[in-house]
Design a protein that fits this description.
mainly alpha; 9 helices
Length: about 210
Amino acid sequence: METLRERKKQRTREALLRTALELFTTEGYERTTVDDIAAAVDVSQRTFFRYFAGKEEAALAPMDVTVAHFLQSVRERPPHEAPMEALRQAVLEGWDTLHDVIEAIAPIELYLRMCRLVESTPALLAAHLRRSVEAEEAMAAILAEREGVDMDTDPRPRLAVAVFGGVMRLTERQWSVGEDFSLDAMRALTVSYLEQVGPALSESWRTH
């Protein structure tokens, strides 16, 4: 059972995270300092650093949660599914529970604003892409274990993840410059691009 101390620590972390996201999206990431976040929650800078290594970690925390959710969804896919189908279904079916996962740490609207900010902030985008590489390695390891292959000698897990990761990156970028910034719009774009992977890789693109 969770103790009172543990609940208090969790509430402090949640307050720091939500406050950080609000400040980042309203005042700007570069202009917001750790002191600003700590002061808004009425805690010390030292307290902030007990929960986050820095403001970059706080800014990317929502994305880290969604990545962890997706990786778990891949682990739980039925073993008979081919690797690319497992990745695709993990995204599509995992999306149904993504709303609750996000809402547990921040309002959906704030999460989406933060996603757009990451795309438009060079320092955050660079950090996000770096973490994406780490997530893709974890994803490849999951596929290798599912298929019973060694990804250090068999390139297929990393190749599948490279294609899939490219599609997801394209989705993020196109969604961030579109006119509809809703979660439904992000899902629809993801579905559309995933459905085009097969034809794009195996069919001719010529119309004549």
